Amino acid sequence: MLRIHFTGVDLARVRMAGRPDALWETILSFHRLRDRRDARLFGEWRTETRSRLNGETRLLGTLIPSRGYFPDFLTPVEGQYGWDVGLDALRGIRPERMRRELGLVGAGAGAGTGFGAAFGTPPPSRLREFMDGGTKHLPRLLGELRGYHRAAVEPYWTHIQAQIEAERAARGRALLDGGADELLASLPPMLRWRAPVLECDYPVDRDVRLRGRGLLLQPSFFCRRTAVTLHDPELPPVLVYPAAAQLASAPAGGESARPAEEQRQRTLGKLVGHTRSVVLRAIGDGATTSELARRAGVSLASASQHACVMREAGLVTTLRRGNAVLHTVTPLGAALLKGGAVAS
Q: What's the whole-number mean pLDDT along residues 46-66?
């Protein structure tokens, strides 16, 4: 069990990340690549990613065990501002911090984040070599990270952004409806708000005291089953948690981490027409099906049907919130409305 303890000041300083964190997504996707679960969501992604991976990833495999602690320095707080900013922060890591955190990997991180590894196990030779070499091995690590990111995350970034934007819209509504208390209570089921403590199913027993620093909530596409937090209690508090799965019919062969391009092209042909343009614009910053019908001046059944077609085309993301669903416009849908290209 993970318990995050809030004060009144901490509640006032709860915030949602403004975008997906490229480094968190990259590191967590490496876990998903070696995990055989969630085949419906990640099966096609795994196949496509493995077919593109022709570079070296042995060092990543050493630093990111299948279970257990991985170094906090791999996911610097600066990563929330973009891939390049995060890599610059990683490039500037202090040697003493690197050795300390690599030592936790070698020890199985039994001090607080161990997911089942044995404490006291001697580090593998590659890890010992990295520890002894200090920052001189950083260029190799950065190279492996870049290569892996290009193969596993970059091709799906637009879809990842859409999922995180939809999650932000859902949590933003909860915040507007009931403040930070409602926001924390609306998080996925593995997170339970029992004021003033946020509890989370976790592989080990741990308490995190925010002490007035607040908490950054970072939804993640590749985070699954349990939330993740940093091991070092002195680092800025962040809770990475699974973004809700997209509510959509799976295309033939299973749901991929991105809509199938052929499916998108077929469905886009159905979008020509004034009514769907009005419906897409009516979604705005997010709308339930009832709100969408009212804004667009169409029936509830018509609003639902139009949203379904646009979801299949990759223009809309739909998440369930209680007994209702919340539709948000994806980057592709926003680009279509603006008549421009999708930003990379």
A: 86
